[in-house]
Amino acid sequence: MEMALFLLIAAGVFAASAIKIVPQQNAWVVERLGRYHASLQPGLNIVIPFIDRIAYKHLLKEVPLDVQPQICITKDNTQVQIDGVIFFQVTDPRLASYGTANFQMAIVQLAQTSLRSECGKRELDRLLEERNDINRAVIAALDEASPNWGVKVLRYEIKDITPPDAVLRSMQTQITAEREKRALVAQSEGKRQEEINLAEGAMTAAIRESEGQKQAAINIAHGQAQAILVTATATAEAIRKVAAALSEPGGMEAVNLKVAEKYVEAFGNIAKQGNTLILPGDLSNMGSLVASAMSIVKQQKDT
After folding, report:
1. Concatenated DSSP letters for 73-137?
2. Following DSSP, what letter does each residue of 171-209 receive, concatenated?
3. pTM for the full predicted model
4. Residues of the chain with pLDDT under 70
5. pLDDT (tens digit per residue) in 89-108
6. How confident is the model at residue 12, as a pLDDT?
7. Are 36 and 29 spatial neighbours (Cβ–Cβ below 8 Å)?
8. Left, alpha or beta for 153 (phi > 0: left; psi -120 to 50: alpha)?
9. DSSP-derived 3-state class of residue 282
10. Helix (H, G, I), strand (E, B) or coil at 279
11. Distance between CA 188 and CA 176 in Å, rounded?
12. Which residues pair with residue 59 across a beta bridge?
């Protein structure tokens, strides 16, 4: 009875050792008597206990791997500290197991040496501007070696580039000076544009004012010319009518009467304008003129 129980337990242990369940996106490498035998795929697998051994277990998902900060020297002899991250994936479990002693360490070491090489080709300013170019160069170097390690490097990204404190202060000073320069330039451009706008506005206002004055002068001249023309026409018409009236009976007498009235009226106006009365030198002429005028009026009444 005890023997049967022992055999039953031994059979259970043997069966448990023979059954291997591999999770999804994993690959297990089996060695048989110390040599590579097979790569177990996800699912249920059977191995021979005590003869087969699970030597390596690989994750087939994309794996991020930190690259620790390192000191690099640029082409202009500036020391900068750079760190990054690599994304890789195991593509061949057998090569990942036997291609190199530690493929993760190999990836990191090769990435660091490639990064130092790329930094040495560039000045500090270009190093800060050409991150993407450096990333592509590191990936290209890893692509050449990674197939022998059974892995594929998908991406490499520089996380931080940290120059020394003295360089950072100089860069900050340069950036501040550059911003102040741009501010002064923008301010001067704004002032220049303001002066241009004011000058153009003043010029436009002066032009429009002069145009207005010109048009007003033209209108006034046209009005004066029209008034002169109308006055001249009316005067000519009046002269023609006076001339026609002179040819009629009593025309000349009427003219003399009118002249006498105007003479008396003008003399009266002169007397109203001041305390000093200016009399004509020959008052007898005015009297004869008034007498003539009165006789003419009397004649006009008789007729």
Report:
1. E-TTS-EEEEEEEEEEEE--HHHHHHSSS-HHHHHHHHHHHHHHHHHHTS-HHHHHH-HHHHHHH
2. HHHHHHHHHHHHHHHHHHHHHHHHHHHHHHHHHHHHHHH
3. 0.58
4. 1, 267, 271-303
5. 999 999 999 998 999 999 99
6. 82
7. yes
8. beta
9. coil
10. coil
11. 18
12. 26
